[in-house]
Write the structure tokens for this entry.
Amino acid sequence: MALARRNRSAETAFFDMLVSVFLTPSRIFKSSWVPGFLILAVALIPSSATSQSPTPVDLVRRAVQNEIRTDSNAHFMFKDERTTGHTSQTKLLIETSEATAGMIIAQDSQPLSPQQQQAEDARLQNYIRNPDQLAWKRRQEKDNADRTLEIIKALPDAFLYEADGTVPGSPQVGRPGAPLVRLKFRPNPKYDPPSREQQVLTGMYGHVLVDPVANRIAEIDATLEKQVAFGWGILGHLDRGGHFLVQQAEVSNQQWGLTRMDLVFTGKILLFKTLTVQSSDVFSDFRPVSSNLNFTEGVELLYKELAAEQAAAAKSKSQMIGPPKPDQNQKSCCGH
């Protein structure tokens, strides 16, 4: 199996690279879980500016330093509601010490059919019963984390930042009412990307929102203003106009997590195969869990949570329907 993965086609390798840059569904400012999305931030080089008057890049640098330094051992159970151009899906997720466990609980706003639930059960049991499969999942998550960190390290050179006012935070972005500093960014024309993953940075424009008190990045909004080619265009390209939005907020006591991720991209793989990505993920209902949970224990908690939600839904439905109404045509026993 490992040999087969090493001998993947160029098409699959290119798609995996795009996944690591754009499509990793996680709490982006964290190096566990399938970690990180595209963190538009800066590397860990100490700033030369004074603390009294930080430059825009200093603000981002401090936030990223804090993102990397904190929360690495904080684990959560949470919900992911994903919509695409033609379907929707709700998933329960839980972070464990081995890998992240996820369970689909609804498809197109409807509970899973018995056949769909059986398929989910089999998928999760496959990881539990096959240590090699779980180890592969863990390695895949780590590989995505490593690629993301390489992108992070390149960003201070890849972008130029400019202050652009402030906006108030909200429950979904930053902290409610806390001021967020808005920083516009554009490509640095002197930047020469050393890898395919970092080439995408050369075409991005947008803004970040930084909480300067909590030292957190609350939002990244970026658009590809030009077509970006990979491998001189042989491996593929992303079209101009591609867009992503990621938002982060305080989801527990001084613990932050990803709350939204929108992706819209088109392009080509190997010159001829069309690539289309259109999705929106909303992450909610964060609850802290033990950082010592193993994968099996995490799956057990997912089943307990699913049972609790099903019971609550059944109770709510029963209350809405109310008690059965008496039959108006039925005569009493006494004939009255």
